[in-house]
# Entry
Amino acid sequence: MSINHIKRRYQKDLTKLPKIFRNRVVKQNNMFTLPTFENKLPILPKEEYKTMTQTGYTEGDLVYITKGEHKGTISTIFRYSKEYDGLFLSDIIEKKIIPKDQWFDQQDSFLVDYPKLIPADSVKLAAKDKNDKGEDYYIVAEEVVFKGKYYDDRYKKWLPRRFVKHHEHIEVPWPNPPTEPKAGELSTEGETVFEKTWEFQSLSVPPFPSTIVNELRNPYSKHKARVLTELQARRLNKPTMPLSKEQQIYLAKKQQSETEQPTELTEEVQDFIGERIANHLNSITNPHLKAHLDALSKNTINH
Amino acid sequence: MNFIRQLSSSCRLQKYDKYWKVTKYVKPIDTKVYEAGEVISRNTHVPKSRVHYPEYPYEALMFKQQNRGLYGGLQKKSSKTCSEYGNKNLRTHSPNIVKTKLYSEVLDKVFQLKVATRVLRTITKEGGLDKYLLKDKSARIKTMGKVGWRIRYDIMKKLQLNELNEGNNTPNTVYHIDNEGRKFIVGKKKLMNELYQFVKSDSYVELSFNDFLIKYNWMNIDEVIESLEKHNFDFTKFILPEQSLEAQTA
# Structure
């Protein structure tokens, strides 16, 4: 276990605390910070961190502020803070007080310009374009949708295409990245990947030993379907309680009665029902009811 | 009076379950028939060996000692004790359980069991353990418990075996009758020993008896007979000769 792992036990993790205790801890932390450097946005747990494809914007994009004192201004994103889900914009600056012992070189005032953290929900994505006359105009997207994918050489990765929702003919391209992605110690250059270093010698002899499949692919993977073998199926099938003689007789009788049940009326039954109805109709003495029944019998409308 | 009783019973909307205490916490049993090649979920547990007894549909999940004896659906009851000062405390009344030996006539075996005294009365009324367990009423099946269910299965199997041996006066017992009506006087184990010789000679690699059992022991007796027939095996040693049957009838 590394020292970093052990250190985490003694660090205060706000995300593990219930929400009602978080404010108290934030207050304790802010006790010795200067009032202008206090941060009132809550810290998000790691699971709720958003990527650039989830927020819909990234550093270098234009945004339109919809709430607060800077409402209505358009500015570019300087930095996105995933911990607070907030944005530092290039033009939105506030003055902060710094005590003299914390002054940096060539500072001559207690007040310092500092970028203001703006919550992400008070910001919409904006874009700049030119009309036919060559004049600049801005559009603001209420929501963004992603469609398709393309390889962006500036970011060195696959990115989805951005469109304005309900106006999907308007594409908002991704901005240039602020810094070019650098190659790390372990990264390989693109050209060396495509160099051919090995080729098949024979089709009849397999190039790898047969046992290598289990080394490359996890045979116990949870994504692999569990298919029953004959032995397993027999083990899963438990024996059933044999039927007693009374039960066998009962079931046989039940099956017999089910098969014998008539589905259509026989002629005898039809005659019997007809006779009963005729007798009942003949026994009616009320003249009004008779007239009504006569009228009904003449009715030829098919319902 | 009877007429009124009929009316009142017919008017009742919900039927009163006498054994609600038993059925309240019942877990549904798995009745699915599994087949080879079927895809199952990761949660299905495959037992490590063959299960010998059928699952009891009314296995108790509360007051679990009733799974280990014949309790007749009796469970703990609770009441309040009251002190002179008027303080009330809950106490429990456990059913009257005794440890006894019960004899099964069919199995010719004595079972030492924990039995409720009320159940002992019912057993004497029914006329023995076998008759108590073989009754088909749903109430009896709900209350006989897991142990009773297992003994019932043993008794039923023994009765089936007795039925096979009806009219058989030879010292050999018949264990199985196949589709052609041949009466087998050996079980699956001895037939497997015979099958091993054929499978061993057929296989290209060396096959030990243990490996053979691991591969083919899942087969039931009918399947073993079928595969022996494919090798033109002579069954005369293992079958009850028909002459002896004819002699008996004569």
Q: What stands out?
A: The CA atoms of residues 108 and 191 of chain B lie 28 Å apart. The mean pLDDT of chain B is 90. DSSP finds ten helices and eight strands in chain B. Strands of chain B lie at 39-40, 69-70, 77-82, 88-93, 97-104, 109-116, 176-177, 183-184.
